[in-house]
Amino acid sequence: MVRTTGPAPSFTTSDDGVPIYRPGLREAGESPREMRMEHDSLGSMPIPADAYWGIHTARALENFPITRRALSNHPNLVIALAFVKQAAARANAEIGVLNAEKAGVIDRACQEIIEGHLHDQFVLGVLQGGAGTSTNMSVNEIVANRGLELLGHAKGEYEHLHPIDDVNRSQSTNDVYPTAIKLAMVLSLRTLLEEHELLSESFARKGREFAHILKVGRTQLQDAVPMTLGQEFRGFATTMREDHDRLSEVIPWLNEINLGATAIGTGITADPRYAESVRRHLSEVSGYEMETAPDLIEATSDAGIFMTLSGTLKRAAVKLSKICNDLRLLSSGPQAGFGEINLPPRQAGSSIMPGKVNPVIPEVVNQVAFSIIGADATVTAAAEAGQLQLNAFEPVIATSIMQSLAWMTNACRTLRLNCVDGITANVERLSEMVDLSVGVVTALTPYIGYQASAKLAYEALNSPLSIRQIVVERGLMSAEDVERVLSPERLSGAVPMTGAIALPMVPVED
């Protein structure tokens, strides 16, 4: 191993602010840094002596200065990659193609990563060419160099533990990378489902709290028939539970993997016993029961499950965004809008209008939904663009879905804690609108007919009197019967039977 002291590799910044790796540059005033030289088929490069990553990572840092988001920004992906490498080491030892000492240090290094160590070494950007090869190479280097330390050797002394010959034994990027991103998606999806369920429960609690508050329902933004505010919030909870079920159903499909397929699905360079062994070990270390795909050729090129997850996530995001639209409408005003509910005031809403408070939490959730919709379009295009035995665009699929899962999780959390839990009802305004609403006339149609009810509605719209008062004043029904027919329980459908009450029919004059 050749070691030198010289200018430290550093990140310079492009015109648009994207970091670019330049091994020969250093910041002004930076002291010389010890380097090691690493070699590959393209030549040699200086690598910081204390870096766990190596030459393949360094080349990728130069080649892909695209995003500012490193792999370390997706800790579940880093952990999933470590799970795969750990399972591979155990399988290789079990079938006798890797000696126990090497397998043991690979196992230990991976466990450290799983426990949260060395994540800062995953500096490579998530978006890259090569179908994820750079990511696989990078994790091989990080694991190998930590393994070398455990063996008492210096980083870069790969003759004792090699990133490809040992850490990547029996593997290819083309089975490691899709397996890891599927597992990472399962880990992230589990967290999302927890937050999603908590938000659904928050809506359900509000449904119970508002169960007896009558309000005017609306269709096409026009007044319809009465309902309770509790029914409205209970509907939010119900639609979220439906999406929770749909998202949960995706997990078993994500657990179908192609480890053992190696390059294109033929299993070249892997022992025939490897696929089953690594499947079993990955199930054990991850805690999720994995299943080897029945057709590894198909599984290596197919991106269908990613479209399924992305589409299901988009559905949940769109429906949550619709709920946020409703919250913004219901709280609009507060004086010149609906003003039915009050959202917790989170921050000043204007630099020019004192006292203005905006519905900023629902608004940010709306924007998350818009982003997820766009990400789903990206996933769809990338899945379609796959060719022959491999889809080269899995990195953009992975980063799109991982970002969507993370943002949706955060959106559910902030909507629950910073908005829904603190919503209150404007009871007086709701009651006033119900009293003045002509929509209650619908409940009278079984007794006086549709045509007569329509006339009453038009009369009420041009009169200061309510429907209740007009019906009683015209002698169409007694005050007692009106109260029975227009009771909150019957208007909202809360009673078991909401059909007609037997009343004497009173003719209505034309």
From TrEMBL:
Where is the stretch described as Disordered? 1-32
- Fumarate lyase N-terminal domain: which residues? 45-374
What SUPFAM superfamilies has UniProt attached to this entry? L-aspartase-like
Any single biological process term in GO:
aspartate metabolic process
Under Gene Ontology molecular function, one entry of this record is:
aspartate ammonia-lyase activity
Q: Which CDD domains match?
A: Aspartase
Q: Which NCBIfam families match?
A: PRK12273.1
Task: Write the protein's name.
Answer: Aspartate ammonia-lyase
